[in-house]
């Protein structure tokens, strides 16, 4: 499954770009590939466990962004800033020399498209964390004036990102072309990946500007719709038939995968996600996420007569959206990780919430090293981007558009109740909330939730709350002492982290602080509001 860009024998794994002699390199298409290969590994910057920044997932030690305890002295900002600009510099080193290759313009444009995708990707990492940031579009030297430049407005950063992604989409090959003509290159950036990322970025900025009181957001929402529609109409991708297998070895390179971070037994360490999901439980679902799954009649648990409550460890899983059991491991079910020896109960010393993720959890990881590719973009996201952008732009969405997006996702898992305008009206629901819910449960634990609550300006409501787990049953855990071994709320639900240590300042926490080192080195940079006080 791995392609050449992860090979430890790659030329660029041994020699940095700025140490390559232009006279001996940049001659062939292989040189162009090698000139970009090293950048692929940094597309894992959005870690699979980034949902721990939200109230949907919880790591055993907590998370400083989720709890609002991040300080300017933490390394979070420095790491994001430095890595992003390092990779943008690597892109410009490539762009300075790629045109020397003895290849056709079509070939050279393909790899220029890859390079511009990377430039857009890392400018977006900077924008979503810091807002206004310096745009860099050429190779800078130490004495250049731009090195000590000011922050560019986020609107200009977005214009640059969109321009790069559109150029990339126009010049990159389709997945089907690679599969037919260059199967050994499956895994490189394609036209579909560029368009999918464009739809993600444009939806982010369109809704961010809408809910944070900024003007001009309509154009971004329209870009998200157009980019999503182009992917949909291309016919290059479709929903895989088996949702549960998507993230397991048998789901690699299925028809839904648009881009994946690739692992190989020959040259990589084992894939972290399936190993740590099963064996270490680096992050766990919360009650907040579990409660979000609809009942099988399409109604929320607080409205549906089908909801069976929390009377047993398994009752809340009954009569629910099938994705609940495919995402969160039902206690006492087959191969449940870390279950107690007698009753299949979750081990609270391993999962403080009592829940475990089943999505991407490969039981083989207990006994063996696994090298499963990690999906970074898939077709389901495109459908959800289209649905949400359409509603946000127009204030409405047709049943036809719901059928090709939300209802296609429900049909894939066997949930028979469709989301329609009449269903929403008859049951007093909010169409926007249901579209958002669909995204939340479909893409749970895929690293997109934090961006969702930031761009919609709902983090201030969701993050400063207690992180809760399942309903505690004393008869199942006779050895645990309430108040000593386990903390409960007034209704008996496990408290993994109390509300009194969780904070969110809406005038501050929607952006991260600029790295203190950068503020010292460049006096023309100003920090984000309320971080330097």
TrEMBL record:
Kindly give the InterPro entries that the UniProt entry links to this protein.
SusD-like_N, SusD_RagB_dom, TPR-like_helical_dom_sf
Task: Point out the coiled-coil segments of this chain.
Answer: none
Report the subcellular localization: Cell outer membrane
Task: Tell me which GO cellular component terms the UniProt record holds.
Answer: cell outer membrane
Q: Where is the SusD-like N-terminal domain?
A: 10-203
| Keyword set, alphabetical order | Cell outer membrane, Membrane, Signal
Residues of the RagB/SusD domain: 266-531
The UniProt entry lists the main location of this chain as membrane
Family per UniProt?
A: Belongs to the SusD family.
Protein's name in the database: RagB/SusD family nutrient uptake outer membrane protein
């Amino acid at each position: 499954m791995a392609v050449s860009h992860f090979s430890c024998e790659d030329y660029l794994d041994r020699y940095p770009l700025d140490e390559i002699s232009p006279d001996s390199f940049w001659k062939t298409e292989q040189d162009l590939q090698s000139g970009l290969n090293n950048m692929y590994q940094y597309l894992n910057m959005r870690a699979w466990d980034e949902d721990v920044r939200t109230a949907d997932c919880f790591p055993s030690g907590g998370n400083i962004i989720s709890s609002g305890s991040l300080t300017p002295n933490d390394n979070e900002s420095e790491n994001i800033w430095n890595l992003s600009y390092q990779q943008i510099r690597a892109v410009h080193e490539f762009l300075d020399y790629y045109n020397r290759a003895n290849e056709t313009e079509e070939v050279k444009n393909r790899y220029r498209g890859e390079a511009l995708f990377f430039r857009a990707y890392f400018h977006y990492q900077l924008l979503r964390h810091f807002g206004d940031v310096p745009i860099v579009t050429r190779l800078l030297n130490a004495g250049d004036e731009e090195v000590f430049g000011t922050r560019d407005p986020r609107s200009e950063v977005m214009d640059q990102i969109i321009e790069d992604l559109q150029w990339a989409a126009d010049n990159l090959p389709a997945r089907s072309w690679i599969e037919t003509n260059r199967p050994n290159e499956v895994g490189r950036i394609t036209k579909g990946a560029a368009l999918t990322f464009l739809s993600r970025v444009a939806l982010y900025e369109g809704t961010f500007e809408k809910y944070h009181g900024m003007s001009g957001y309509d154009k971004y929402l329209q870009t998200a719709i157009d980019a999503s529609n182009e992917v949909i109409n291309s016919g290059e991708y479709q929903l895989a038939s088996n949702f549960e297998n998507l993230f397991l070895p048998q789901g690699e390179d299925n028809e839904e995968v648009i881009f994946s971070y690739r692992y190989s037994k020959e040259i990589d360490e084992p894939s972290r996600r399936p190993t740590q999901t099963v064996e270490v439980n680096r992050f766990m679902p919360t009650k907040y996420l579990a409660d979000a799954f609809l009942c099988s009649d399409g109604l929320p648990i607080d409205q549906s007569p089908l909801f069976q409550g929390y009377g047993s460890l398994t009752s809340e899983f009954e009569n629910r959206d099938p994705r609940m059991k495919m995402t969160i491991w039902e206690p006492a079910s087959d191969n449940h990780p870390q279950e107690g020896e007698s009753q299949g109960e979750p081990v609270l010393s391993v999962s403080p919430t009592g829940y475990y993720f089943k999505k991407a959890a490969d039981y083989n990881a207990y006994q063996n090293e696994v090298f499963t590719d990690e999906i970074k973009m898939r077709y389901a996201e495109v459908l959800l981007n289209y649905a949400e952008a359409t509603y946000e732009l127009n204030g409405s969405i047709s049943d036809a558009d719901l059928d090709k997006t939300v209802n296609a996702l429900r049909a894939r898992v066997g949930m028979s109740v469709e989301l329609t305008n009449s269903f929403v009206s008859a049951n007093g629901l909010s169409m926007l909330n249901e579209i958002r819910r669909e995204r939340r449960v479909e893409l749970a634990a895929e690293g997109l939730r934090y961006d969702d609550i930031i761009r919609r300006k709902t983090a201030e409501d969701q993050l400063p709350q207690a992180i809760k787990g399942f309903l505690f049953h004393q008869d199942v855990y006779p050895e645990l002492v309430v108040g000593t071994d386990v903390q409960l709320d007034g209704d008996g639900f496990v408290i993994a982290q109390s509300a009194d240590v969780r904070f969110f300042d809406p005038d501050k926490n929607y952006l991260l602080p600029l790295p203190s080192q950068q503020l010292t080195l460049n006096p023309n940079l100003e920090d984000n509001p309320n971080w330097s006080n």
